[in-house]
Design brief:
Elements lengths: L1 E5 L8 H19 L4 H8 L3 H5 L7 H5 L7 H22 L1 H22 L7 E2 L2 H14 L4 E8 L2 E8 H19 L4 H4 L4 H18 L24 E2 L1
Parallel strand pairs: 2-5
Antiparallel strand pairs: 1-3, 3-4
Helix pairs in contact: 1-5, 5-6, 5-7, 6-7, 6-10, 7-8, 7-10, 8-10
Length: 240
């Protein structure tokens, strides 16, 4: 399933979300320009769990910088698609300053969760999806009755279906949980792959921080009540 948009309008311009999107794109384009120098760059600025666990003085810096690094076009494209769809509404609910703190805090919690799941890994962890998982957790908390317009392959056909956000996000979480549990017994838990526990840690942090930072703020109203069924025509770095 590929989400395309949601049905919740924003009452203010999501400036922080735009800035985060732009930063991720700029940093990724810079990565592409490095050529063969990309590997030492990722090793320096990505979060290496084994190095972090040694508590080097500079090891906390990659906790932040790793959130803006990506391992390929699909990696950065998928992450930014989710941020584009869900980030504006969470920012709208929290306000710009709280949202920026929330995003970075969720990314930090995600990095720590993955580090605890694979403390001896020498492979750098990169990607924004831990922080974006936090955005998804907060979105589930604030807008469970929203609809997510989703591209769904059904046999040989592709359908556009409005799926309840509650169902979409809980299914996403269940997939992360199953894969995260499986990764603990695989070789990839120490050598690279998808950082499932970063997703889980970020999502949990998003719910907890969402309760604290969005309390007392008004919710947006759904643009449409929408139905579940489609309407009629009218060995790489950890990926987070």
């Amino acid at each position: 399933m590929i989400p395309l948009r949601d049905t919740i309008p924003s009452s203010r311009r999501p400036v922080v979300t735009y800035v985060l999107l732009a930063l991720n794109v700029v940093v990724f384009l810079y990565e592409l320009s490095l050529g063969r120098a990309i590997e030492p760059f990722i090793l320096q600025w990505g979060l290496v769990p084994a190095r972090f666990m040694l508590t080097e003085p500079s090891s906390w810096v990659p906790v932040l910088t790793s959130m803006f690094l990506h391992g390929g076009w699909a990696h950065v494209g998928g992450n930014l698609l989710y941020l584009w769809i869900f980030g504006d509404n969470v920012e709208d609910r929290m306000g710009h300053g709280r949202y920026l703190f929330f995003y970075l805090a969720c990314g930090t919690c995600a990095a720590l969760a993955q580090t605890l799941a694979s403390p001896g890994s020498p492979t750098p962890m990169v990607g924004a999806s831990g922080a974006i998982a936090g955005v998804l957790g907060a979105y589930l908390l604030y807008y469970p009755h929203a609809r997510v317009v989703t591209l769904v392959p059904i046999f040989f056909f592709i359908q556009l279906i409005e799926i309840p956000a509650l169902f979409f996000l809980l299914l996403w979480f269940a997939m992360q949980l199953v894969n995260g549990a499986a990764s603990l017994t695989r070789a990839t838990a120490a050598t690279g792959g998808v950082a499932w526990w970063a997703h889980l840690g970020g999502f949990a942090a998003g719910i907890v921080l969402g309760l604290l930072l969005g309390y007392g703020r008004p919710k947006a109203v759904s643009r449409t009540q929408g139905g579940f069924w489609p309407r009629q025509p009218g060995g790489t770095p950890w990926g987070r």
